[in-house]
Design goal:
By secondary structure, the protein is α/β, with parallel strands linked by helices. The chain is built from twelve helices and eight strands. Bound molecules: NADP nicotinamide-adenine-dinucleotide phosphate.
Length: 273
């Protein structure tokens, strides 16, 4: 990443997380960030990184340009920076959910190297996981650069088929919320069983964190880990039977499908213009 300049447009959750991670790995003068909000620019400057209200200076020097704004604003942003992007021709990395590479490329004037990345919320604490896809203009060196940038906040996996980005969005992009919901449900269940709410919330959250650490080290072994804590005739077995009997697997399958469909829909709606 030496002699490589990175520009980040948008210093919200994701832009700030990426800038913070990169600041400890490369010279701050290799990074530039833009955002309309003075408080967010100040947080970037606190990292020793230049921050601008205008996107121009960021695009002008970027070899890799991260678009870290909400999907709804992406078309307008691309139209505003297309001219400068075409003269610099950086690798463009979009973290926006749903928006397809061909639409981003078209909005920016065409012929560009585009990477789409779908990180997730734990990226904000450098514990995310990201699915990446590259169009055919992206060189091996640029792939490596994109993986390095997302790698500062997350594990990185490449997809060869862009259509699967919608599925990855449904599993890992939206996924943290499913686990948060499970903690909410367990907390509510504990209260129903007579436990104080604060204690219940701590028990449920601590259990999620511990289970998360165990599965992180053995990602293929969810079923084996579950079997190990499910003694025949025991309490866990009774609970799991109840969940499966009530259609837990089908419910999760339908939820993931709904998220995948919404991601497709967003791409179609926002990319149509
Ligand atoms: N947060 C996550 O966990 C997560 C996970 C996966 C993917 N993503 C994706 O990452 C992207 C950013 O998400 P986020 O949560 O970081 O959003 P965010 O907190 O809203 O940050 C976006 C920042 O960019 C600014 N901005 C908007 N338009 C701009 C423009 N034209 N030029 C410069 N700055 C502009 C926004 O200002 P305003 O508030 O005034 O618009 C805001 O400060 C989204 O596309 C999202 O889908 C986020």
């Amino acid at each position: 990443m030496q002699n490589f300049s990175i520009g980040i447009i948008g210093a919200g959750n994701m832009g700030l997380a990426l800038a913070s991670g990169l600041a400890s790995r490369m010279a701050p003068e290799q990074i530039a960030v833009s955002d309309p909000h003075p408080d967010k620019r100040q947080r970037i400057r606190d990292l020793g990184i230049s921050a601008y209200a205008d996107n121009g200076p960021v695009v002008a020097r970027a070899d890799l340009l991260v678009l870290a704004i909400k999907p709804q604003g992406l078309r307008e942003l691309c139209a505003a920076i297309a001219h400068e992007v075409q003269s610099r021709r950086p690798l463009v990395v979009s973290v926006a959910a749903g928006i397809r590479g061909t639409d981003i490329d078209r909005w920016l004037g065409g012929g560009l190297a585009i990477v789409r990345a779908m990180p997730n919320t734990p990226a904000l604490i450098n514990a995310g996981i990201s699915a990446l896809w590259a169009n055919d203009k992206v060189s091996a060196r640029q792939r490596e650069a994109a993986a390095t940038v997302l790698g500062v906040v997350s594990e990185v996996f490449w997809l060869t088929d862009e259509a699967l980005m919608d599925a990855a969005t449904a599993i890992s992009g939206s996924g943290p919320a499913y686990f948060f919901l499970m903690v909410e449900a367990l907390t509510a269940a504990g209260v129903t069983l007579g436990l104080p709410r604060d204690l219940c919330a701590a028990l449920a959250a601590g259990t999620a964190a511990g289970a998360g650490r165990m599965i992180h080290d053995h990602p293929e072994e969810a079923a084996a880990l579950r079997a190990r804590v499910t003694s025949p005739g025991g309490t866990t077995e009774r609970a799991i039977k109840s969940l499966l009997g009530d259609g837990f697997m089908e419910m999760v399958g339908r939820a993931a499908q709904a998220a995948r469909d919404r991601s497709r829909e967003l791409g179609e709606q926002l990319g149509a213009a």
